[in-house]
Specification:
single chain, 488 residues, alpha/beta, 6-stranded mixed sheet, two-stranded parallel sheet
């Protein structure tokens, strides 16, 4: 830790830097941010990870009264003066011509424009979108906990908790249509610059929640390690790395498993307490109406971000539009039909490959079979994610004669003689079906069937079919008669 109130950090002069005219288009990817942060680490080798991160966040004005009151006022968190012995500032470029300090301000400063463009967010290699401010604040609070044993338990949850609390209270005034979310779409997945939300935003958009969850997970990890041995750029790079081994175990430091791992570091009562703590840090205790709002909001949060799986939207995997408008379903539906794709025959282990598989299947269904769209309602990759096909509300073309009464869920791969990974199957068995029931898309007593039970096919493969026969919702017999005349 560097003593004294005066820090010499190479990022000084950032305000002057921002005022300079910068016209280069920056790609809002996690890889770019990690590269910029690594450059900052290299330029400031004497600073500890906590000092460096605290300096960066203060410099780009990501502190507020709540944060300062919780982590305390000290030389390493507040009242920091940024100087440079040569009275200069960084003029190095990132990715050719992007000024480093300008990039940090654009990447970290979170806000939403009148056109529903969300700024201060980045696209991660696994296809999810993350707000950097709550991520970095959670990491900083985890590092702070290693230096000050008086910090409260779960301090790394506070950036997320504060946003959740404010969003719950905002909902009281009926400003947003929902108290959480929404998600959105990037203008270009390979070269992302602009992210546009799908609906009117709450204060806790999906990207902000993802950032808060990731900050809590990484912060919790860093709170029990020696920060002198930590290089934050390496931690972030590893956490958001693309690609996975097929026979994997869930890792606390992998972004694709954030929902399960977030449950491992907290529980509903602890997070609800942190929400109340964050709201009360600068005001009196909330009233009974606000307590009720928090309780309702926490139930919604647990369902949306802990029980339900992450679903990669069509705009991320590069879906073509349906050839014609799709027929609507009338949920809740009675059936869920399990498929395997057979072709492609191998599991997909990252966003790039899974997305390629999705596009190939859609082209085959639309062009070779003449269907309106990819046939499945949802497709399960082996990268830890569910991929949106026709979704919950549009009729599929997955199980002949049954598309009006059920959803079709396909596992990418041929599972005649092998099974998907355990984690991949759990996405459907426990999370997707629970989400479908809780949100009113599936009947509570729905029936799960293998494709072969209603159509003359070997799908979903002998091994996978034997597996689903052990699942709670599976039924040996099919009570429904064939329905003709379905659109495709």
């Amino acid at each position: 830790m560097i003593p004294g109130a005066l820090w010499i950090i190479t990022l000084s002069g950032i305000c002057l830097c921002i005022q300079s005219k910068v016209t280069a288009v920056h790609l809002m990817t996690m890889e770019n941010f990690v590269a910029a942060f690594q450059r900052l680490e290299d330029l400031n080798p004497t600073l500890t990870p906590l000092d460096l991160l605290a300096s960066l966040l203060s410099t780009v004005s990501q502190r507020d009264n709540m944060t300062c009151s919780i982590i305390g006022s000290s030389d390493n968190t507040t009242d920091v003066h940024y100087t440079d012995s040569n009275n200069t500032f960084i003029t190095e470029n990132l990715s050719g011509n992007i000024n480093l300090c300008w990039f940090f301000n654009q990447a970290i400063h979170h806000f939403i424009t009148d056109d529903r463009e969300e700024r201060g967010i980045v696209l991660t290699p696994d296809g999810t979108t993350v707000a950097l401010s709550p991520l970095l604040l959670g990491v900083e609070m985890g590092l702070q906990a290693t230096k000050d044993v008086t910090q409260p338990h779960g301090i790394y949850l506070l950036p997320l908790a504060k946003t959740l609390g404010l969003s719950f209270l905002q909902f009281q005034n009926s400003t947003p249509p929902e108290r959480l979310g929404p998600d959105g779409c990037w203008d270009n997945i390979s070269s992302p610059v602009v992210f546009t939300l799908s609906e009117e935003p709450s204060l806790a958009t999906d990207a902000v929640v993802h950032g808060g969850m990731d900050g809590a997970i990484i912060g919790r990890h860093l709170s029990v390690v020696n920060d002198s041995e930590v290089k934050l750029s390496e931690v972030l790079s590893s956490y958001y790395s693309d690609g996975i081994e097929l026979d994997h175990g869930v890792s606390h430091l992998k972004g694709r498993y954030r929902r399960q791992n977030f449950q491992d570091i907290t529980n509903a009562s602890l997070l609800q307490k942190k929400v109340a703590d964050a709201l009360n840090s600068n005001r009196r205790r909330e009233n009974a109406a606000e307590e009720s709002l928090i309780e309702e909001g926490m139930r919604e949060f647990a369902l949306r971000y802990m029980d339900c799986p992450t679903i990669i939207p069509r705009c991320v995997w590069g879906a073509a539009p349906p050839r014609v408008p799709l027929s609507s379903l009338s949920p809740p539906l009675q059936f869920l039909y399990i498929h395997h794709t057979s072709t492609p025959s191998k599991p997909c282990l990252n966003l790039q490959k899974c997305s390629q598989n999705m596009r190939e299947m859609q082209r085959f269904h639309q062009k070779d079979r003449g269907w309106y769209d990819i046939g499945y309602s949802f497709v399960i990759g082996s990268d830890g994610y569910v991929y949106e096909g026709r979704g919950w509300m549009s009729q599929g073309a997955h199980t002949r004669g049954r598309n009006l009464v059920g959803y079709g869920v396909a596992f990418i791969g041929d599972y005649t003689s092998q099974l998907p990974s355990r984690y991949t199957m759990e996405l459907v068995r426990h999370h997707l079906v629970k989400c479908g029931v809780s949100k009113g898309f599936l009947q509570k007593n729905f029936t799960m069937l293998g494709h072969r039970q209603v159509v003359n096919t070997s799908c979903p493969g002998d091994s996978l079919y034997s597996e689903i026969k052990t699942w709670k919702q599976y039924k040996d017999t099919d009570p429904l008669k064939y329905q003709r005349g379905e659109p495709v």
